[in-house]
Amino acid sequence: MTQGRSIRLFLVDGTPNGLLTAEIMNWTGHVLTGPRSKMTELVQRPECARTGVYFLVGPDPDDSLRTRVYIGESDDVAQRLIQHNRPEKPDGSGGKDFWERVCLVTSKDQNLTKAHVKYLESKLIGIAANAGRCVLSNGTAPDYAGLPESDRADMAFFLEQLRIVLPALGFDFLLEPPRLVALNREASAPASEPLNASPRFVLESQKLGIKALAEEVDGLFMVLKGSRVRGQWNSTPHSYELLFRRLIADGVLVPDGPEHRVFSADYLFSSPSAAAAVVYARNANGRTSWLVDGTGQTYAAWQDQQLGALQPTLEDA
Questions:
Q1: How far is residue 167's CA from residue 177's CA, in Å, rounded to a whole number?
Q2: pTM score > 0.85 for this model?
Q3: Distance from first CA to last CA of the chain, Å, rounded?
Q4: Which residue has the higher pLDDT, 131 or 187?
Q5: Neighbour tally for 93: CB within 10 Å
Q6: What is the pLDDT of residue 166?
């Protein structure tokens, strides 16, 4: 079982939409994040005068369902952010227009050097590209390996903690891609324990010629590779239609005959309804559409059953 962690959050100006700092016990890293509207206050923070890596985050102008991210490093982050805040020119030079939030990562003991942050920048760009959860504005990752072996080991631990704290702050672009989540869970699970407490769910329609299988993984709903779905969106415009088209563009849904597509890889959805909408190619209630394989029990009924099993324990407490 994964060990729990404590993250210390501090609302700098006492409001949930202002500047926020985050730290993990026994980690030298320090995270500062805030909206672009707080740039004046943010660049005056002492963290911004240190060496660090930073993320500019906002919606992708070409696809509002996707997040665009720029990853950078600097000895003086404040000056670099001021440059990024300038209007972007037609040739792409100048500032960057897309970002709405900034996240800065420095060290509490101020031991991060220029070599460290260049190494972190290279690794972070590679991780984000491999995860496939955002559109990167960086292009290719710079290949930087100019660190001694001991420093690379320290930076590996630094990255591990960063990949824990950032998703807790709402930045999920460093999360492992779905297939790696499943493979890593399988590799780490003892042979005597089931891989997943979730049963396998099925959504099937013989009339439509579709059949999809799914499981819950770490609170998300994962449709499995090989699941067969309708080939074209078949309803009035809906926000899930954009998701459906994005999965086609990304190669997650590939053609399978003239009227169907299949999942080319496992894919994590935020909810059963989002998954069901993609399978049906129309808006759908995933809580009633997905059934426990072999029993016919709906996802909603299965979830209620899990809560019902806790009732005696809750009453005793």
A1: 13
A2: no
A3: 24
A4: 131
A5: 8
A6: 94
